[in-house]
Design goal:
- The chain is mostly helical and 276 residues long.
- 62% of the residues lie in helices and 0% in strands.
- The protein contains twelve helices and no strands.
- Helix 1 (2-10) crosses helix 8 (164-182), helix 3 (44-79) runs parallel beside helix 7 (143-160) and helix 5 (91-116) packs antiparallel against helix 7.
- The radius of gyration is 19 Å and the shape is globular.
- It starts with a helix and ends in a 14-residue tail after the last helix.
C-alpha cells in the first residue's frame, strides 16, 4: 500500500499538480461563499485578479526551482546524504518526518525570518497588504518573497535527504493547507479550535493577517500549529477584532498590481523594526 502511494507521487505530473491547485482554489472559493467568516462587500473577481497574477509569477519561478530540485534529488541519491539516509524507519514514519521537516524549514522558519529581517519583510508586506483575505490570498506573494521560501525548501530537502515522492507529498499538502487557512470560511468555533491544536485552522491564520502588532507576528505555521506553540508565537483570540491589511502600505492600492510589485523597493517603506 505505502509503496503504491510513494510510486503515485513519484510519478505525479505537472498537469495533475495544476488540477490540484485549481481544485483546491475552487472548493474553498465555493465554501467561503456559503459559510463566510467576514461578509465583505467587495468584487471577488477583481480582488482575485491581483492575487492570481502573483500566482502566475510564482508558478514561473517554481519551474526554475523544479529544475534545481531535479539536480538536488540526484545528488542526494548519489551521495546518500541527509538525515533520513542515516536511519532505517518504516516508510510511513519517514513521510511524516519529511513533511514535518519541510513544514518547519520552508514555512515556519522562513516565515518568521520574513517578519524579523527588514529586507525580507519589505517583500513579505505584499502578502499582508491584502485588505480582503480569502482563498486567493494564499497565492499572494511577491516574486522575491517566493524565492526566499523556495530557497529554504531546497535547504530542507538537502538536510532531510528527501526522495522526490516525499517532497511532492509535502507540496500537495501545503497547497491544501494554504488555501484552507486563507479561505474566508467560518467553521464551528469548537471545530476550528480543535483543529488548531495540531494544524493551522482558518481562524488561526486570520489573526496573522491582522493589520498591526502583536498579532501580525504570530501563527507563522502553514500545516502544523505546534511549531508556534513550541516557540511561543501562537495566539487564538476573537476573529471579530481582526482588521486585514498592513498599516505601512496604502490600503486603497491593495489591488494595484504595479504598486504591489514596486512597494518593497520604496525607500520610505518602513522595515520590520518599525512595525507598530
Amino acid at each position: 500500500m505505502m509503496d503504491a502511494i510513494v510510486a503515485f507521487f513519484e510519478n505525479l505530473t505537472s498537469l495533475q499538480k495544476f488540477f490540484w491547485v485549481v481544485g483546491c482554489l475552487s472548493l474553498f472559493w465555493i465554501l467561503e461563499g456559503v459559510y463566510p467568516l467576514k461578509k465583505h462587500q467587495y468584487n471577488k473577481w477583481k480582488h482575485a485578479k491581483t492575487n492570481l497574477i502573483l500566482l502566475l509569477s510564482t508558478m514561473i519561478i517554481n519551474v526554475v526551482f523544479g529544475i534545481l530540485t531535479v539536480g538536488i534529488f540526484s545528488w542526494i541519491d548519489a551521495n546518500n546524504f541527509g538525515l533520513l539516509k542515516m536511519i532505517d524507519l518504516p516508510v510511513w514514519i519517514e513521510i511524516i518526518l519529511a513533511i514535518m521537516i519541510l513544514d518547519f524549514m520552508s514555512q515556519y522558519i522562513v516565515h518568521y525570518m520574513l517578519h524579523k529581517i527588514p529586507v525580507m519583510w519589505r517583500f513579505h508586506t505584499i502578502h499582508h497588504s491584502d485588505t480582503h483575505v480569502d482563498v486567493t490570498s494564499g497565492t499572494r506573494h511577491h516574486p522575491i518573497d517566493f524565492i526566499f521560501r523556495e530557497t529554504f525548501a531546497l535547504l530542507g530537502i538537502i538536510i532531510a535527504g528527501l526522495p522526490v515522492s516525499y517532497y511532492l507529498m509535502y507540496r500537495i499538502l501545503t497547497v491544501l493547507f494554504t488555501y484552507f487557512s486563507h479561505a474566508d470560511i467560518q467553521l464551528p468555533l469548537w471545530l476550528d479550535k480543535t483543529i488548531s491544536y495540531v494544524f493551522i485552522s482558518p481562524n488561526t491564520h486570520k489573526f496573522h493577517h491582522h493589520h498591526v502588532m502583536p498579532w501580525t507576528d504570530t501563527n507563522f505555521g502553514n500545516i502544523f500549529s505546534f511549531w508556534d506553540r513550541i516557540f511561543g508565537t501562537f495566539i487564538y483570540k476573537d476573529t471579530k477584532d481582526i482588521v486585514y491589511g498592513i498599516d505601512i502600505l496604502d490600503a486603497e492600492k491593495s489591488e494595484d498590481i504595479l504598486y504591489q510589485l514596486k512597494a518593497p523597493f520604496k525607500k520610505e517603506l518602513k522595515s520590520a523594526e518599525y512595525k507598530a
